[in-house]
Structures are given as structure tokens and as C-alpha cells.
Known about the structure:
Blueprint: E1 21-23, H1 27-36, H2 47-52, H3 62-77, E2 82-88, E3 100-112, E4 115-125, E5 131-141
Antiparallel strand pairs: 1-3, 2-5, 3-4, 4-5
Amino acid sequence: MTGAQQVYAEDIAPGYELPELVKNCTPRQLVMWAGAAPDFYEIHYDAEYARAAGLPGLVVHGALKYAFLGQLLHDWVAPDGRVVSFRCSYRGLDVPGEDLRCRGVVRGSTVEAGETRFELQIWIENPRGEITTPGSAVVVLPSRS
């Protein structure tokens, strides 16, 4: 839990923008993720190997970016909401040392079995404004009543 105020279904409408989450990976974080994942593809922790493969240097793990988007969602719905589903695709490379902006916007809502479900567009963009990791999510927010 982030300590933020609970967001309620009655306060959200299409077009609402989620609070941005900014992440800036370090090479150390990539090594730690490689061990935890486990994802030991050398492009994530061996800069020389990555450059020899034609990359600009180390590359942030796709699954780590997925986890960042999961944190964006969790931080927004917590403590009493929940993430029903989310997905993303990896469309661009992100490198350590750059601010990765995790963002989202509400696209619509439905009521099912007394719950308000919100459909979201989520993404990560790099400092050049390029969306490298687009995705979508469905979340449930509690009602004030």
C-alpha cells in the first residue's frame, strides 16, 4: 500500500488519468531482476554483449516493465480495489538510466454483479515520449456506499 487515499468508483469517469509512476532502472536492478525472474539473457546485464548484439547497451527486461505497470495499477486501486486483469506488449527497447513513465487513462466502465469495472489503457513511455510498452487493464474500485 502506498498510503494514498482510496479512489472510489463514483469519482472516476472516462478520460480520468491515473497518477503517473516514474521508474528509473539501474544496472544493479537489472541484475537483481535477472536473478529473481530468472531471466539470464545477457542483454540485460552484460553491456558488451548487448552492444555486440546491435543494441545501444543494456536493455530493461520486458517482464520488469510488466511489473512496473502492475505497480501502477496496484498503487491506484489499493487498498480496497482490485486488479481483475492486465496485459501489455513490448514494442520498444528501454534502457537503464532513463525515466520510464508508467501512465494510464480510464476508457470506460461497466457494472457487473454490483461491481463497477473500469477499462483502462496503460503504457510506459520513454523520455522521448515514445510508447514502448502499451497495454490494457480492468480494475474494480469500491463504492462509497
